[in-house]
Amino acid sequence: MTAMLAARAHAGADALALEKIAVPEPRPGDVLVRVASAGLAPSLMKLLARGSFRHLPSTPGHEIAGTVAAVGPDADASLVGKRVRVHPGLSCRDCAYCRTDREQMCASAAMLGSGAHGTGPMPLYERYHDGGLAEFVRAPAWLVDVLPDRVGFDVAAKVQDFGNALRAVRTADLPPGGTLVVTAATGTMGTATVKLAPHLGASRLILVGRSAERLAAVAAISPLPARTVALDGLGADWETSGGLTRRLLDLAPGGADAVVDYLPHGAGTGQATAALATGATLVAMGGNRSPFPHTARDLQHHCWRVAGTRGCTRADTAAVLDLLGSGALTADELITHRFPLADVGAALTALTGRTEPIWMAVVNP
């Protein structure tokens, strides 16, 4: 095969275009992966609109699993035929961040099949900016992880999201038996956090989301006792009256031990923070641009810790694969939607519109 179908992002476009392009040739140190499953991220079109994709046209898709079809010179030939996931994190591999399990903070940080987030030169991103919304993808051989037998391609494609959630909860530094609040709990990151929480010190969850019905479905799959707070049920004035804080303190009178916050906007982040126990932690991963209502005096008085985090590291995804491979973590039920590559446009519309519950969505080329 010399040509393949790919979803292509073009400058100025508000939708992906399905095109026939050449199958990439593996170069020295590369593998060529036949894509079996590619995860869909709601942020894809937002990153494109912001200019985060620095090489266009390009094939997006940073969550990739499939079978190694070929290898280039200097790559391990025994990888051919192996079931793998492609770790999308690109970095310099040599700076202080990369040497201390913080490669997402590297000045050269970028994502294969996604945006560039660093501030320095990005030679790897220049070479590997094309991602997995295609029939084949080329990647550095050192970025593929051979899959445990019990891990299917669809879950493997979403390991990156589990790695992000694991990094967020670890950053929270929960005390043993802690109460964890998860905001935006009905989305991809929220559901991943719910499944991982028992392995990271939590003993009780409080799940925050817009809809009581959707929250109930997530609570039903939680391995831990879980209470829910539906924003739609707090009253029309909850954002100005502190309704979320009051409800959280009703459920955790002494305050929560941590909040992992995935809210992209609104008053929920600040109000969840106000429901923290003394000495507890807010982990901000939703990128909320609304003004933070607490002062440095508030942080000092309550001994709160506020930590921002973005992405995850190879060590995080390795830990997730270990949990999945051992059977300690199961996640197949989180894959709620599967689409053929030809329907990628409709898939992205469904994912961003959220008119129906979608936990995790994948494309099967």
Automatic annotation (TrEMBL):
Pfam family, one: ADH_zinc_N
Record InterPro entries: ADH-like_C, ADH-like_N, ADH_Zn_CS, GroES-like_sf, NAD(P)-bd_dom_sf, Zn_alcohol_dh
Keywords: Metal-binding, Oxidoreductase, Zinc
PROSITE patterns hit by this protein: ADH_ZINC
Domain Alcohol dehydrogenase-like N-terminal: 28-145
EC main group: oxidoreductase
MF terms in GO: L-threonine 3-dehydrogenase activity; zinc ion binding
The enzyme's E.C. designation: 1.1.1.103
Cofactor: Zn(2+)
Membrane-traversing stretches: none
Keyword Oxidoreductase: yes
Domain Alcohol dehydrogenase-like C-terminal: 189-324
Family membership noted in the UniProt record: Belongs to the zinc-containing alcohol dehydrogenase family.
Protein name according to UniProt: L-threonine 3-dehydrogenase
